[in-house]
Amino acid sequence: MPQKTILIVDDETPIRDMLRVALEMADYHCLEAADAQSAHSLIVDRKPDLILLDWMLPGTSGIELARRLKREEVTSQIPVIMLTAKGEEDNKVQGLEVGADDYITKPFSPRELVARLKAVLRRTDNFSDNGPITVEGLTLDPASHRITINDQPVQMGPTEYRLLEFFLTHQERVYTRSQLLDHVWGGNVYVEERTVDVHIRRLRKALQLDGHDRFVQTVRGAGYRFSLKIAASEA
To answer: What does each C-alpha distance from 152 to 140, 157, 163, 210 come to in angstroms?
Structure first.
C-alpha cells in the first residue's frame, strides 16, 4: 500500500514538529504549513490524503479554510481533522458543520491522534466498487465518485457520500444512530452519536434539488431511513 501523505497546518512550530515525528513514526509522509494561504497552495499542488488543521491560524482561520476546501470541487473530498484547544460543544458542532471529518481537542496524545487519523482514512478508503445506483432521478456512481440529480451535479462531503451510499443500498429500513455509526463510520469509538445528526442535516441540504431531501426521513424515537414513500413520522 502506498505511503499516505498528511498535511499539518499549525502556526506553532513545536506542535508541527511533534505531530510530524508522531506521524512519521507511524509511517506517514508529512507536509507542513503555518498559515491558511500556504496550506491551500500545498493542498492544490500536492493533494494530501488527509489534512490536520488547527482552528486558530493567523489571518484566515482554520475553520474558514475548511469551509473553503469543502466548497471547492478539487479539494472537497480530502478528509479534514480539526485540531484545537476549543473544547466547547458549539465549537465541535461548528467544525463538523463546515465539513470536518473529526475533531481533536488539545492536549491529546500522539497515540490518540494516529488512531483517529487511521479511522478517518479507513472510512474514506472504504468506498464501494458497485455500479451506479439510481432512484427517482438521483444517481450515485461509485466508479467516478459523482452524484447527480436529474443529470445536475451535486456536491457533498465524503461522509455525506458514504451515508447516501449506505442509504441507497439499504432503503426502507430504519437505522439507529449507533447502527449508522457502525456501518458508515466503521464502528469508530471516537465519534459521538450526535455527529450523525450533523451529517444527516448536511446530506439533506445537499439533496435539496427537486426536493430529494425528503427521502432522508427521521423516524421519531428510532433513527433514520431512506424511503421513497411519504412518512407521517418524518420530521
So the answer is: 12, 17, 20, 11
